[in-house]
Amino acid sequence: MTLAEKAYDALRHDIIRGELAPGRPLRLADLSERYGMGFSPLREALNRLQAERLVMAESLRGFRVAPLSLEELHDATSLRILIETEALCASVRLGDDAWEAGIVSALHALNLQAGRTGPEADIWELEARHHAFHHALLAACNSPWTLEFVERLYVATERYRIPILLAAALPAGRDVQAEHSALAEAALERDIDKAVARLREHYLRTVNDLADVIRLNDPRTARVAAK
Amino acid sequence: MTLAEKAYDALRHDIIRGELAPGRPLRLADLSERYGMGFSPLREALNRLQAERLVMAESLRGFRVAPLSLEELHDATSLRILIETEALCASVRLGDDAWEAGIVSALHALNLQAGRTGPEADIWELEARHHAFHHALLAACNSPWTLEFVERLYVATERYRIPILLAAALPAGRDVQAEHSALAEAALERDIDKAVARLREHYLRTVNDLADVIRLNDPRTARVAAK
DNA sequence: GCAGCGGTAATTTTCGAAATTTTTGGATTT
DNA sequence: AAATCCAAAAATTTCGAAAATTACCGCTGC
Fold this sequence. Notes:
Order of helices and strands of chain A: HEHHEEHHHHHHH
Mean pLDDT of chain A: 93
Oligomer: homodimer
Largest sheet of chain A: 3 strands, antiparallel
Shape of chain A: globular
Radius of gyration of chain A: 19 Å
Distance between the termini of chain A: 53 Å
Number of strands of chain A: 3
Largest interface: A-B, 33 and 33 residues
Structural class of chain A: mainly alpha
């Protein structure tokens, strides 16, 4: 693995997890020290991330972490629902035994981690298994372009979930694991309409929860929201 | 404009137009001579194009122009229809006077160029206006993510149209300009169902024409197709 | 005939410094 | 006091060479 690839993985990892905060300038001298390499591999990684919209670049003024906005969250979620519901339809139609097994396996692993508490509870392991579960549902859709866009939108929206993940601040009255199980159940039963409806509901609830948290944390709306 | 940006534009341009053929290795020494710059800006451009799937990279083995395949054409077209029909719905719902004017203007410019013959006929100017027309239809959808994906899929499918463009080899019996006019008409009438149906038809006809030409040019299927 | 093996050439990758541009801070002027 | 300008500092961008890896080619041995 080349240094440029390591730089890409490390930067992407740190941006997605929020260790490099949205909007933060990415100075080459800093990154060079942080990741222990020269400018060349870093610039190559930054250019790749720029094309993925995780990094913004301005001519002769360097790079910064792409900012977040409530508008973008809604935009990305709407498109996600459109693309993922279509992909889910295709997967349910085309999925074979391996697809079913992948869903069962990913759901089980996700539930195991979700049930862990104390020192075993690792929010990032949970996040990885959540990602894997959603991917497993769509894996049989047989469309590389769809899977690429799904991945792009997953990453784009994952950054918005970090405050909730870190605070473990899910609203009371929502059982996300039950939603996942019901989603898997509908898919395995090959009930397209039910599966699609549950996927859409799952995302709409998530985006609403996220929007609430973001509004609460936004100083401009904090007073209004606190009413 | 930095050299890296010039390199990105030039490489993208040459790949899309087929001047750098699909599958061709992109050696840095060649590119350095071709574009008159050092390795650094070229590598940055290649990394951006890799993220856009116009270039494939393999660790320590350099870059090559991304190959084409009939499967990818069908995959990209299906997804294009899904995303663009949704974007067209939104545009028809949200579009204002400027949106309507943009469509009328782009259609007129496209028709002007399509009518030109002899030395005035410039296939690449026609292509640019075709691109602009399709963009104008969706420009009011108010979704940056959608527009990015539309652009990605347009570029991905444009490479397949080059043989037809260069040969001016459209099948007899198809009037593409009439399709464009009908599409614009339905959109301006705010008839969502009609506009969406015409857009879908437009793309399905195109992909069928392209598939025919590709099969004809493919030595493996040439004999069968010639029957 | 051909699979394996060295060694050379070609190529990619990375670094460090030079060139270029932007930013900063203070002195000067209006 | 605000605006302007200039030089120093900081940052990005680019180059050219060094380092590392792969590809090629003739050779050997079976």
